[in-house]
Specification:
- The radius of gyration is 25 Å and the shape is globular.
- The longest helix is centred in the first third of the chain and has 29 residues.
- It has 191 residues and is an alpha/beta fold.
- Helices cover 35% and strands 21% of the residues.
Length: 191
């Protein structure tokens, strides 16, 4: 058995060395660091593509952006949830669901009326609304959901800036990295 063990060094390149050099350790650490950085950048890129300012998204003129514009601006069968009560308007199953953040838990229970819903319009009325978290992975029965449109009716950023909206929307959602749903947002303060 002993001669066979000695010969194993000739077949496995890493075992040919009698000791591991400092260079080998540094190169291994560089490789681990490099792959970690690329992994983090990949995750950040996915997040950046999943959440976008609606004005930027609409400017690309793609079929996807035109379809979303139609969903937001034209009349479609819709549902509204307020205080746990669902009210529907139009013919057929609702394509659009209008709700606020206090209704998130209601969306986690399957409702057959939401099977055709493609867009959830979420209105953020006050700073307290940003305390609620929306876990996309817990949605039940939303077989066609492609979009969530977040509309801020107040400015959560300081001054006249809207620079913080992306981070506010990112903090509002959980599980977007595990979903194909895209989120668009807009500051839309009524006059």
């Amino acid at each position: 058995i002993l001669p066979k063990l000695k010969n194993i060094k000739h077949n496995v390149p890493f075992l040919k060395k009698e000791f591991i050099s400092l260079t080998d350790i540094i190169n291994t650490r560089k490789w681990i660091l490099l792959t970690s950085v690329f992994s983090m950048l990949f995750v950040l890129q996915i997040s950046a593509q999943t959440i976008e300012n609606i004005d930027n998204f609409m400017n690309d003129g793609s079929g996807e952006s035109l379809y979303l514009k139609n969903l937001i601006t034209e009349l479609h069968s819709s549902a509204y949830i307020e205080d746990g009560v669902v009210t529907t308007y139009g013919n057929g199953s609702p394509v659009i669901l209008n709700t606020g953040t206090k209704e998130f838990s209601f969306l986690y229970n399957e409702n057959l009326a939401f099977g055709e819903t493609e867009l959830i319009k979420l209105v953020i009325d006050k700073p307290e609304d940003l305390q609620n978290k929306f876990d996309i992975t817990r949605l039940q029965g939303f077989n066609n959901l492609a979009w969530i449109y977040v509309s801020f009716s107040f400015n959560p950023c300081s001054g006249d800036s809207d620079d913080c909206l992306l981070s506010r929307v990112q903090n509002l959602f959980q599980g977007l990295d595990q979903s194909s749903v895209k989120v668009v947002y807009k500051l839309s303060i009524p006059n």
